[in-house]
Amino acid sequence: KQVYEIICANYERLDAAIDFKRDFGFDFFGFKTLERSYLLKVDGKIVERPQHMLMRVAVGIHGEDIEQAIQTYDLMSRKYFTHATPTLFNSGTPHPQMSSCFLLTMKGDSIDGIYDTLTQCAKISKSAGGIGVSISNIRARDSYIRGTNGASNGIVPMLRVYNDTARYVDQGGGKRKGSFAMYLEPWHADIF
């Protein structure tokens, strides 16, 4: 809502700064990539041009600083730089998550800890974030489980669940595949 109000209050300056001829600077593959993943859609129909996307991103980043937004738009539209994918997907939208990477530690060596962390990973992936998770605190295979008087299955079955979640909860609703990197210390018993 805030970005919408800023655009409404400054639409004449913003429109005057947009150079639609620069849309033709994208080759076919570049345009199809924008069309498939980056340009906003409503009910499956594209509702912005590449230059609109760049201005949306610039206003989403700079807010009410219209001069900086226009300068950022101009530099991006002339291909001096671009922003990371989550910024291009989400800046200037109701869910402006613009970080590319998130580093997590498993919340605990329990069903609750494992699935709380999995839920957090799914929510981050939904908003186009890549994830690194330290899993060194998960007990190794055949370790005793006091609560059930049983033995742990180790990290491999848990990793399958995380992998399936990364494949299911892709980044940005089908814009690109989810990415989870799992990290395990070399001293962990499941390595030996």
From TrEMBL:
GO biological process: deoxyribonucleotide biosynthetic process
Gene3D superfamilies xrefs: 3.20.70.20
Record's catalysed reaction(s): a 2'-deoxyribonucleoside 5'-diphosphate + [thioredoxin]-disulfide + H2O = a ribonucleoside 5'-diphosphate + [thioredoxin]-dithiol
Ranges for domain Ribonucleotide reductase large subunit C-terminal: 99-192
Domain Ribonucleotide reductase large subunit N-terminal, first and last residues per copy: 25-95
Entry-linked InterPro entries: RNR_lg_C, RNR_lsu_N, RNR_R1-su_N, Rrm1
Name of this protein: Ribonucleoside-diphosphate reductase
Matching Pfam families: Ribonuc_red_lgC, Ribonuc_red_lgN
Keywords: Deoxyribonucleotide synthesis, Oxidoreductase
PANTHER family, A to Z: RIBONUCLEOSIDE-DIPHOSPHATE REDUCTASE LARGE CHAIN, RIBONUCLEOSIDE-DIPHOSPHATE REDUCTASE LARGE SUBUNIT
Physiological role: Provides the precursors necessary for DNA synthesis. Catalyzes the biosynthesis of deoxyribonucleotides from the corresponding ribonucleotides.
GO CC terms: ribonucleoside-diphosphate reductase complex
Record family assignment: Belongs to the ribonucleoside diphosphate reductase large chain family.
EC number from the UniProt entry: 1.17.4.1
Lineage of the species this protein comes from: Eukaryota, Viridiplantae, Streptophyta, Embryophyta, Tracheophyta
GO molecular function: ATP binding; ribonucleoside-diphosphate reductase activity, thioredoxin disulfide as acceptor
Domain of life: Eukaryota
Top EC class for this record: oxidoreductase
